[in-house]
Amino acid sequence: MARVRYFAAAEEAVGRDEEARGEATVGALREALLTEHPGLTGILPRCAVLVGGSRVEDDTPLATDAVVDILPPFAGG
After folding, report:
1. What is the rounded end-to-end Cα distance, in angstroms, of the chain?
2. What is the DSSP string of 9-65?
3. CA atoms within 13 A on the CB side of 50
4. Beta bridge partners of 2
5. How far is CA 19 from the centre of its chain?
6. pLDDT mean over 24-28
7. How far is residue 18's CA from residue 4's CA, in Å, rounded to a whole number?
8. What b/e sequence results for 20-38 when a residue is b if at least 16 CB atoms lie within 10 Å of its CB, and e otherwise?
9. What local confidence, expressed as pLDDT, does residue 74 receive?
10. Is residue 18 a contact partner of residue 33, using CB atoms and an 8 Å limit?
11. Average pLDDT estimate for 31-50
12. Is residue 49 exposed (0-12), middle (13-18) or buried (19+ Cβ within 10 Å)?
């Protein structure tokens, strides 16, 4: 299963910093996360989704050993 890591506001909305997921693509993962975690509705569309450290499109397949990072926009100082 892919390992999904949540950061900042995404972590707060989900209530954990990571979890294992079984979706086949990034798009399927996005859909499932929005269904299971309604608090992500206003956050996830603005998040960068990285697989193995690189930005990816929704049709990107997720390998069972993939590491997916959900990164909301960060404010800098």
Report:
1. 36
2. HHHHHHTSSEEEE--SBHHHHHHHHHHH-GGGTTTGGG-EEEETTEE--TT-B--TT
3. 12
4. 21
5. 10
6. 98
7. 5
8. ebebeebbbbbeebeeebe
9. 79
10. no
11. 96
12. buried
SS3 per-residue string spanning 35-51: HHCHHHCCCHHHCEEEE
Cα 32-34-40 angle, rounded to 5 deg? 140
Are 9 and 41 a contacting pair, CB within 8 Å?
A: no
Whether the predicted pLDDT of 9 surpasses 90: yes
